[in-house]
């Protein structure tokens, strides 16, 4: 198996697990930790992948020593003799403003350029080592102009060169780019500049950035107003970025992308444009919400908007799905309604967080998510937004049966008190003020003794920090019912003898639940209230009857006051095998479930050994799945349990595992808790061979070694 160019890790980037190497006593780190954690609201949703990426390759054929040159064209020629002057003509209109750029690529030629009007009068000139440029030569009259090209140093040097011409007030061969869009392009020859146009309104503040992805290209980016006047530029490697450019007038603006080194470098690049005061293609996000997104191309930035009040303090967190060298390192910025940047954070360890960003005015704010620091990597991420200083109500929520519910909310640092209020319709039922001592590490909880009636309620919470009460949180709604509520199983599961869980009902002495497959009753189970426990809010029971694969429903009822109450609404679930295909954990574990869903193959971990190298270690033989569990032993060992058809947990480790040039490496076991099914692909082995092995039940593919190791090289 060839090495993946993706997964080498620096020990300075994230906290490592320690390995002990023998006999060479090498120290190694394995990145099987650092799971996605913390801060994701229960009200999580998945946003559309908001990349607006298009591919536009700008290239024109390069003429060799033509008589004339057109706007937006690059030509090639030579000064081949001492004293030689090459002349080119072009046609212009009155008021045109032109840019001319000349780059020498061989010999000792020192570029010099001059522009002459139709009457032969010198208008503009420029010279410099390697690249000479005339930027903004105003042409008062219409007609045929001429460009003279020569060696400016002594008039005797010679060499090959490229020459580029463009009209700045109305550029030719320009490509339209919209706010929120990412385009790709190429600088194919020295001196070449690619031109893009966009329409803006007076007072707009825009961001533009250019990222080189191949060749030796040094990104250069310039922005011109509708009259061809330069308003902003940047040539800072490796990312050319105009972070904030205020546009005074409305109209059509142009962006020039080029090699900013002046050395004639070429290569491919991506260009991104966004309006900061009124961003386009933005996705709304609310306080307490977590959204998922993807950076699908270099240079791309994804934009989100939210509404805030004066004095609000917000927390913003972006977490990358994976911790690998070639995967997204998140960066985030917050902008105010006028497009001014307020706060920024970035991190190479998977999570970037702005813990406290003060918003002085009310209005619509924006958040930009991007790859840090070079904007070349792509990947999936989660974005979380919350009001700092305002607690988030957690439970009760939804339908419950507890008449004295426990109220739970998020902890706020430096809070000394909390106050929550309960409403029934438009009537306040009660208000409770409690000390911060009711809080644990991340949440707070309090249980009033007031018995509530069966009805619909809503509640909210606020905090006291620095002697001042914060704003109240948003309301959390719940309804109390005298029917037990089925909780699990629900949805797709793999367990054929699942545990049934439901909410506890006050005064109930027995519970009864029934399970159906279609219309056929599979079994009825009656249990005493001891299934709930004295202080528990839920009840559970695990029947021994084995359920077959397929869709099922179940419902539950309570025995209260000497009579059976009505059954709850039915809860649906299905018993399935784990999905066939590729599975992956952000903790650095991946494997495949075979097409017949009976085996695991290609179980792999990523290892970086200090002073030795980075490796992907793969267990090559088939591992049977039994009762939704698999395991293998040896110097490289691993196991897993399928919690649902699309989620698995397990562990892996090394025990005196030999790596050539590294010695014998040991460490672990390391736990992974969130391996998920990604797609239906299979390892890159001939499909017919895979199918034949599974049909014949041969087991493995007869590889001479149960493991194979691929060296991983950092990009």
List the helices and strands and how they pair.
Blueprint: E1 17-22, E2 27-30, E3 53-55, E4 63-64, E5 73-79, E6 85-92, E7 96-104, E8 111-116, E9 122-127, E10 131-139, E11 143-151, E12 159-167, E13 175-176, E14 181-187, E15 193-200, E16 205-212, E17 219-224, E18 230-234, E19 239-246, E20 251-259, E21 267-275, E22 283-284, E23 289-295, E24 301-308, E25 313-320, E26 330-335, E27 341-346, E28 351-358, E29 363-371, E30 379-387, E31 393-395, E32 398-400, E33 407-410, E34 415-424, E35 427-435, E36 443-446, E37 456-465, E38 468-469, E39 476-480, E40 486-488, E41 491-493, E42 500-503, E43 508-517, E44 520-528, E45 538-541, E46 550-560, E47 563-564, E48 571-575, E49 581-585, E50 589-593, E51 599-609, E52 613-619, E53 623-624, E54 629-632, E55 636-644, E56 647-659, E57 663-679, H1 687-696, E58 707-712
Parallel strand pairs: 3-14, 4-5, 13-15, 22-24, 32-39, 41-48
Antiparallel strand pairs: 1-2, 1-57, 2-51, 5-12, 6-11, 7-10, 7-12, 8-9, 8-11, 14-21, 15-20, 16-19, 16-21, 17-18, 17-20, 23-30, 24-29, 25-28, 25-30, 26-27, 26-29, 31-33, 33-36, 34-35, 34-37, 37-38, 37-39, 40-42, 42-45, 43-44, 43-46, 46-47, 46-48, 49-50, 49-57, 50-51, 51-52, 51-53, 52-58, 54-55, ...
């Amino acid at each position: 198996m060839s090495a993946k160019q993706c997964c080498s890790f620096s020990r300075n980037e994230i906290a490592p697990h320690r390995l002990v190497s023998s006999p060479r006593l090498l120290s190694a780190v394995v990145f099987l930790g650092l799971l996605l954690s913390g801060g994701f609201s229960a009200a999580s949703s998945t946003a559309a992948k908001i990349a607006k990426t298009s591919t536009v390759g700008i290239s024109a054929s390069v003429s060799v020593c033509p008589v004339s040159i057109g706007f937006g064209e690059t030509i090639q020629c030579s000064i081949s003799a001492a004293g030689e002057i090459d002349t080119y003509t072009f046609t212009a209109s009155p008021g045109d403003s032109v840019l001319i750029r000349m780059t020498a690529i061989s010999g000792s030629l020192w570029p010099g350029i001059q522009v002459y009007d139709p009457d032969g009068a010198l208008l503009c000139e420029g010279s410099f080592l390697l690249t000479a440029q005339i930027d903004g030569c105003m042409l008062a009259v219409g007609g045929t102009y001429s460009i003279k090209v020569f060696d400016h140093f002594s008039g005797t040097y010679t060499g090959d060169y490229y020459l580029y011409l463009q009209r700045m007030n109305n550029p030719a061969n320009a490509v339209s780019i919209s706010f929120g869009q990412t385009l790709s392009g190429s600088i194919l020859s020295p001196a070449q500049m690619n031109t893009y146009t966009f329409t803006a309104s007076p007072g707009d503040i825009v961001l533009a950035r250019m990222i080189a992805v191949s060749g030796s290209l040094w990104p250069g980016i310039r922005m011109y107003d509708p009259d061809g006047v330069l308003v902003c530029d940047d040539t800072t490697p490796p990312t050319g970025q105009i972070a904030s450019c205020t546009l005074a007038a409305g109209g059509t603006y142009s962006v020039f992308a080029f090699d900013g080194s002046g050395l004639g470098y070429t290569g491919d690049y991506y260009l991104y444009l966004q309006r900061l005061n009124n961003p386009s293609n933005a996705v709304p996000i609310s306080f307490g919400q977590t959204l998922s997104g993807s950076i699908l191309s270099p240079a791309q930035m994804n934009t989100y908007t939210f509404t805030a009040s004066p004095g609000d303090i917000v927390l913003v967190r972006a977490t990358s799905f994976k911790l690998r060298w070639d995967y997204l390192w998140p960066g985030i910025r917050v902008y105010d309604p006028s497009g001014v940047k307020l706060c920024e954070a970035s991190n190479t360890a998977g999570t970037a967080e702005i813990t406290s960003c003060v918003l002085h005015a009310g209005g619509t704010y924006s958040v930009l998510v991007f790859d840090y620091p070079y904007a070349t990597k792509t990947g999936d991420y989660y974005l979380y937004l919350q009001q700092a200083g305002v607690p988030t109500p957690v439970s009760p929520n939804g339908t419950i049966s507890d008449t004295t519910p426990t109220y739970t909310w998020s902890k706020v640092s430096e809070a000394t008190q909390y106050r929550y209020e309960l409403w029934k319709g438009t009537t306040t039922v009660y208000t409770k003020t409690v000390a911060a001592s009711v809080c644990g590490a991340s949440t707070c909880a309090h249980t009033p003794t007031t018995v509530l009636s069966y009805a619909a309620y809503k509640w909210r919470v606020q905090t006291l920090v620095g002697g001042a009460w914060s704003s109240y949180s948003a309301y959390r709604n719940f309804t109390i019912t005298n029917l037990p509520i089925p909780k699990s199983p629900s949805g797709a599961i793999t367990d054929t003898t699942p545990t049934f869980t439901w909410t506890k009902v006050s005064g109930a002495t027995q519970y009864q639940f029934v399970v159906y497959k279609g219309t056929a009753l599979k079994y009825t189970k009656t249990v005493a209230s001891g299934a709930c426990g004295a202080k528990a809010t839920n009840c559970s029971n695990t029947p021994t009857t084995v359920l077959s694969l397929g869709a099922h429903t179940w419902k539950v009822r309570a025995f209260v006051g000497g009579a059976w109450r009505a059954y709850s609404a039915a809860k649906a679930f299905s018993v399935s095998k784990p999905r066939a295909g590729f599975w992956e954990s952000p903790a650095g574990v991946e494997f495949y479930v075979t097409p017949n869903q009976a085996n695991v193959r290609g179980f792999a971990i990523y290892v970086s050994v200090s002073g030795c190298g980075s490796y992907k270690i793969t267990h090559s033989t088939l591992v049977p799945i039994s009762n939704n569990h698999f395991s293998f032993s040896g110097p490289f060992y691993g196991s897993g349990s399928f919690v649902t058809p699309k989620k698995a947990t397990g562990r892996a480790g090394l025990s005196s595992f030999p790596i050539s040039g590294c010695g014998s490496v040991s460490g672990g076991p390391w736990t992974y808790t969130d391996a998920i099914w990604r797609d239906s692909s299979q390892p890159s082995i001939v499909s017919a061979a895979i199918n034949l092995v599974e049909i014949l039940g041969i087991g493995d593919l007869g590889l001479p070694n149960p493991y194979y190791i691929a060296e991983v090289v950092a990009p």
